[in-house]
Design a protein that fits this description.
This protein is α+β, with helices and mostly antiparallel strands. The protein folds into three domains: 90 residues, no CATH class; 193 residues, Sandwich (Jelly Rolls); 71 residues, Phage tail protein beta-alpha-beta fold (3-Layer(bab) Sandwich), CATH 3.55.50. Helices cover 20% and strands 31% of the residues. It has an 18-stranded mixed beta sheet that branches. The protein has a three-stranded mixed beta sheet with strand order 23-27-26, with helices on one face. Strands 11-12 form a two-stranded antiparallel sheet. Helix 1 packs antiparallel against helix 5. The longest helix is centred in the first third of the chain and has 14 residues.
């Protein structure tokens, strides 16, 4: 079995130009030998960024390996920096095979690190009282008597909620939480999100209001009206749009610091309506099919080219940074790890590729910065991104 510490030493030493001739040969053995084929393929399938290879098109396993092996033939340390650094990241982060935690020592010279987020939420009652929910529980159920999903009672809520009460479930930065509403609909809230809802949803129309991001699995509800049976619509309102559904699964991202509100349909059918379209007109209503996603723009609703799998990755417990710019990556990390993001100088124009589980510590996640000539400084809850000067004086 591979010695992870030795592999990491060789990979770091290679891009730092510190390997001896024998270590140089050992480094390439990691890529050539059959016993490492599984690890090599797992890295290639999920590599973070392609550096100079980005200009050659989409990620391609054969092209990446070809680039690396050409460097071996040249016997030179000139190479595509970010590809080698991505290999370092691979050996550190293949969570299904190993758990390998990098040093807590931050570039600022201070011992600093932040654990990943977890189950955190509060309920805000109509009188403004805030009740903290257990971090040992995954979520809350509003069906019948309010309880945790495993049936345990919620401390501090007994006899405090009436059926007509308007409540808010708030999830802070560094948190996620689930709620089953009174009609059986399930909602997963991402970090820094709020869901406003009625303790007992109505029979004419079920309506909730969302700030932030949430995944909805809406239960079908029917009511009898004389000789007819009517399906009760479910409506999700955000600051700028309304989503109407009858029974479906979808994701809504409505963060105030993102360029637009996105709605992604996983299953069923939804109708997305913008409250206003601006002076230039445009599409203000769109019906989505499974796999489709919309985003709000200055000219109305637009189809989003991100996949539904990428849009809902957070619910499945991982980040999907495929074809994502640095600033968007950092906003996601800021919410999950509860840190404020700052930059020294301009925000570097860097694109990322690949996925990683959200249960890693921040120091492990941040190793990806070194693959793109970036550094960072972590001071309490402020993470500053620093662009390092490349050879020739370029940033």
């Amino acid at each position: 079995m591979m010695d992870i510490e030795r592999a990491t030493y060789l990979l770091n030493g290679y891009h730092e130009e510190k390997l001896s001739e024998s270590e140089y040969a050992e480094f390439f053995a990691l890529l050539h030998e059959d016993q490492y084929a599984l690890f090599r393929e797992q890295w290639l399938d999920g590599c973070w960024s392609l550096g100079e290879l980005q200009s050659q098109g989409e990620p391609n396993n054969e092209r990446i390996l070809s680039t690396i092996f050409k460097e071996q033939q040249k016997r030179s340390y000139r190479r595509t920096y970010s590809v080698v650094a991505a290999i370092v990241l691979f050996f550190s982060l293949v969570a299904t095979v190993y758990t390998f935690v990098f040093s807590d020592f931050s570039p600022s010279g201070q011992l600093a690190d932040i654990e990943p987020g977890g189950n955190k939420a509060n309920i805000v009652l109509p009188n403004g009282e805030i009740v903290s929910l257990s971090e040992q529980e995954q979520g809350l159920s509003m069906k019948g008597e309010i309880r945790y999903l495993d049936g345990d009672p919620v401390s501090g809520l007994k006899n405090k909620i009436d059926a007509s009460d308007q409540l808010a479930l708030t999830v802070p930065r560094g948190g996620v939480y689930q709620i089953t509403l009174s009609d059986g609909s399930e909602v997963w809230l991402n970090s820094e999100s709020k869901l406003y809802y009625s303790a007992q949803l109505g029979k004419q129309k079920r309506e909730v209001f969302l700030e932030g991001e949430a995944y909805f699995k809406v239960a079908k509800l029917y009511v009898s009206e004389g000789d007819t049976v009517r399906r009760v619509p479910f409506v999700v309102k955000t600051a700028k749009q309304t989503i109407e559904v009858l029974g479906t699964q979808f994701n809504v991202s409505a963060y105030g610091d993102e360029p637009g509100i996105s709605t992604t349909l996983v299953e069923g059918k939804v109708k997305v309506t913008m409250d206003s379209v601006g002076a230039h007109g445009g599409i203000n209503e769109m019906v989505l099919k499974p796999g489709e996603s919309t985003i709000t723009g200055t000219g109305g609703l637009l189809l989003n080219d991100l996949s539904s799998k990428q849009q809902t990755a957070w619910k499945e417990g991982y980040f999907d940074f495929t074809n994502m710019p640095l600033d968007q990556v950092m906003r996601q990390l800021g919410r999950w790890y509860g840190v404020d993001i700052a930059y020294e100088g301009k925000i570097p124009k860097i694109m990322f590729y690949g996925t990683i589980e959200r249960n890693n510590r921040l120091s492990t996640i941040m190793t990806l910065l070194e693959t793109n000539h970036l550094d960072y400084r972590l001071e309490k809850n402020k993470l500053t991104i620093i662009a390092k000067e490349r050879k020739g004086g370029k940033i």
